[in-house]
Design a protein that fits this description.
Layout (H helix, E strand, L loop, with lengths): L15 E13 L4 E7 L2 E7 L6 H8 L6 E10 L14 E12 L17 H6 L1 H4 L3 H23 L3 E2 L5 E2 L11 E4 L2 E5 L4 H11 L1 E9 L12 E10 L4 H22 L1 H7 L12 E3 H12 L10 H14 L4 E5 L22 E6 L2 E9 L3 H10 L8 H8 L5 E7 H9 L12 E2 L2 E2 L1 E2 H11 L1
Parallel strand pairs: 3-5, 6-10, 12-13
Antiparallel strand pairs: 1-2, 1-4, 2-3, 4-5, 7-9, 8-9, 10-11, 11-16, 13-14, 14-15, 15-16, 17-18, 18-19
The protein binds one RNA strand through strand 1, strand 2, helix 2 and strand 15.
RNA sequence: GGACCGUUGGUGUAGCCCGGUUAACACGUCUCCCUGUCACGGAGAAGACCGCGGGUUCAAAUCCCGCACGGUCCGCCA
C-alpha cells in the first residue's frame, strides 16, 4: 500500500493507511501503548491496543524505542473530544495500529530528544551532531536556513540574475590579505577559494547580472562565536550601476522579500526561538564610516583604530540604529580605502574612502559589498599601489580589458544571517557540520588521541 | 597568541568558599506494575576511581602548583 504522509492523516479519517517514520517517544500503559510517530511532515499518535487474535503484535510494539524506524498500517480514527491534543496539527486524529514492521532499531539515546531545549554544551552538541540534529529545535534552524537560501535564489532569479558556479580551487591567494588553505594540485600548488569574487566579476562582463551560493574557505586562526573556516556565501554581482547605493537598494528589496517569506513559511521555527522578525524600512538607514566612528566613540567613550570598526563598535552601532533609527539593519558606507581590497571603487569626493558598505544586523556584519573599479588602467594602478605585481591577476584582468560595465556586488554570510534571525549565540549552531580550528566533525585533538591509542 | 571562567555517571547540573565516612538531583537507560496518555504515571535497579600529573594533610571532588582540554571575550580577519 502506498505511504501516507503524517500531515495528510486528518484528511483520511476512517481510512486504512500506511505510515512510515521514526518513533519520537513511547508511552507504555501496560495493555495499551502509545507511540508518537514522526516523519518529515509531522507527528501523529499511534495506538497499540490489545489484539486477541494476534498477541505477538503487542509484544513487538513493546520493543519500540526512541528513534526506531517503523512502518505501521492501521486506521485513522477521530479522537474522542476530551482526548484531543491541541499542541499538534494532527491532534484530532490517531492511528489504530493493525500491522507493524520495524525497519530498523536504534541504540539507546545518550540525550533526551524530546526535551524542549537541547540542554547541553556546544562541544557535546557538535560531537553528537548526527543525533542532535534530529531535535526539533536543531531542525528548525536548518529549515529557516533553507528558506533564506531559497528566497535568495528566487529573488535574484526573478530580477534578471543568472546563477553561476564559481570554482573552489583557485590559482592564487585571491585578493591577498586573508589567509587561504593551500592544497596539493598534481605537480603544483593551488588554494581553496576565499570568495567567488573574481569569477562573479568576470561573469558580469558576460551576463551582466549573476549570483552564486557556495562554500568559501578562510584559513584564519580565529576562534569566536561569529567565525567559521568554511562558510556559505550568498553572492551577487551586477553591471550598469550608478554607484554602491544601487546595490543597497536591491539588498533592501531582497531583505523585505526574505522577511515576508520567513513569516509565511517558517512561523513555527521562528516561534520555537521566540525572536521576532525584524522590520525592514523602505530605506535601511545608512551612515558613513567616519560618522559611524564618531557615534561609536561618543557612546563607548573609547579611542579606537581609525581605519576599522571593532566588534564592540559594531554592537554599539546596531544598538544605536535599533533605538534611534528604528531599524535592526544598518548600512555603514565609505570604509577607508586602506582597509578595503584593491578592486574597491574610491569615492569621488575623497579617495581616502570608498564606495563600499557593510551591512550590520543585530550586532554583527552580515554582508560586505561595494562598487568595483571597472576601468582596466585604474584597476592596474590600484593593484600596483598596494605593492602587488598585476601580472599575478592577468587572467582576471582580461575581463576588464574587453569591456566591463560599471559594476558592483555583495556577499552575505549565510550562517551569520541564520544565527541572527533566530537569536543563536554561536554561528556554529547555524552550521550543520562546522569546521573550525579545533574541529572537523570531531574535535581534532580527540582524533589524535584515538590514533595514538591504536598505535 | 592574550584575558577571564570552567572540566563531577550517557546528558545537564549541585556539592568546592569552610577538607571527614554510602558524591546528591533532574533527564535518559534497564526490570516490574498500569487500557487513554501525549515530555504519561508508580515501584525498584544499574551507571562516576569527581580532566590528567604532582604537592599539603591522619584524611582531598573540595586547598596549592603544573599541564591538557573546552567555553566566552579580545586579537587576527573583506
Amino acid at each position: 500500500m502506498q505511504r501516507t504522509l503524517i500531515i495528510d492523516t486528518p484528511k483520511n479519517i476512517g481510512k486504512k493507511v500506511t505510515l512510515a517514520g521514526w518513533v519520537n517517544v513511547r508511552r507504555d500503559h501496560g495493555k495499551i501503548i502509545f507511540i508518537d510517530l514522526r516523519d518529515r511532515t509531522g507527528i501523529i499518535q499511534v495506538v497499540f491496543a490489545p489484539n486477541k487474535k494476534n498477541p505477538e503484535f503487542q509484544k513487538l510494539a513493546e520493543t519500540l524505542r526512541s528513534e526506531y524506524v517503523a512502518q505501521i498500517i492501521g486506521a485513522i480514527n477521530e479522537r474522542p473530544k476530551n482526548m484531543i491534543n491541541e499542541k499538534i496539527p494532527t491532534g484530532k486524529v490517531e492511528l489504530l495500529a493493525e500491522e507493524l514492521v520495524i525497519l530498523n532499531s536504534a541504540q539507546s539515546l545518550p540525550i533526551d530528544l524530546n526535551a524542549e531545549h537541547l540542554d547541553m554544551g556546544l562541544e557535546t552538541l557538535l560531537d553528537m551532531r548526527p543525533l542532535t540534529l534530529k531535535h526539533s529545535k536543531a531542525r528548525a534552524i536548518f529549515k529557516a536556513q533553507a528558506e533564506i537560501v531559497k528566497t535568495f535564489y528566487e529573488f535574484f532569479s526573478k530580477n534578471g540574475f543568472m546563477e553561476i558556479q564559481a570554482p573552489k580551487i583557485v590559482p592564487e591567494a585571491t585578493e591577498g590579505g586573508s589567509e587561504v588553505f593551500s592544497i596539493e594540485y598534481f605537480e603544483s600548488k593551488a588554494y581553496l577559494a576565499q570568495s567567488p569574487q573574481f569569477y562573479k566579476q568576470i561573469m558580469v562582463g558576460v551576463f551582466e547580472r549573476v549570483f552564486t551560493i557556495g562554500n568559501v574557505y578562510r584559513a584564519e586562526p580565529h576562534d569566536t562565536t561569529r567565525h567559521l573556516n568554511e562558510y556559505t556565501s550568498l553572492d551577487f554581482e551586477m553591471g550598469f550601476i550608478k554607484d554602491h547605493t544601487d546595490l543597497m537598494k536591491i539588498i533592501t528589496e531582497w531583505l523585505k522579500f526574505l522577511v515576508e517569506q520567513l513569516s509565511a513559511n517558517c512561523h513555527d521555527e521562528l516561534d520555537a526561538y521566540g525572536v521576532p522578525l525584524p522590520k525592514i524600512l523602505d530605506d535601511i538607514p545608512a551612515i558613513s564610516f567616519p560618522e559611524a566612528k564618531k557615534i561609536a566613540r561618543k557612546i563607548s567613550g573609547k579611542e579606537t583604530d581609525d581605519l576599522d570598526l571593532e566588534p564592540e563598535e559594531e554592537r554599539i552601532l546596531s544598538g544605536y540604529a535599533a533605538k534611534e533609527l528604528n531599524s535592526e539593519f544598518l548600512f555603514v558606507t565609505h570604509y577607508p580605502a586602506k582597509k578595503r581590497p584593491w578592486y574597491t571603487m574610491p569615492d569621488d569626493a575623497d579617495p581616502k574612502y570608498t564606495k563600499s558598505f557593510d551591512l550590520l544586523f543585530r550586532g554583527v556584519e552580515i554582508a560586505t559589498g561595494g562598487q568595483r573599479i571597472h576601468n582596466y588602467e585604474q584597476l592596474v594602478q590600484s593593484i600596483k599601489s598596494k605593492g602587488i605585481n598585476p601580472d599575478k591577476f592577468k587572467f582576471y584582468l582580461m575581463a576588464f580589458q574587453y569591456g566591463m560595465p560599471p559594476e558592483g556586488g555583495a556577499g552575505f554570510g549565510l550562517e551569520r544571517l541564520t544565527a541572527k534571525f533566530l537569536g543563536l549565540a554561536n554561528v556554529k549552531e547555524a552550521t550543520l557540520f562546522p569546521r573550525d580550528m579545533k574541529r572537523i566533525d570531531l574535535l581534532l585533538h580527540k582524533e589524535k588521541i584515538i590514533k595514538e591509542e591504536k598505535k
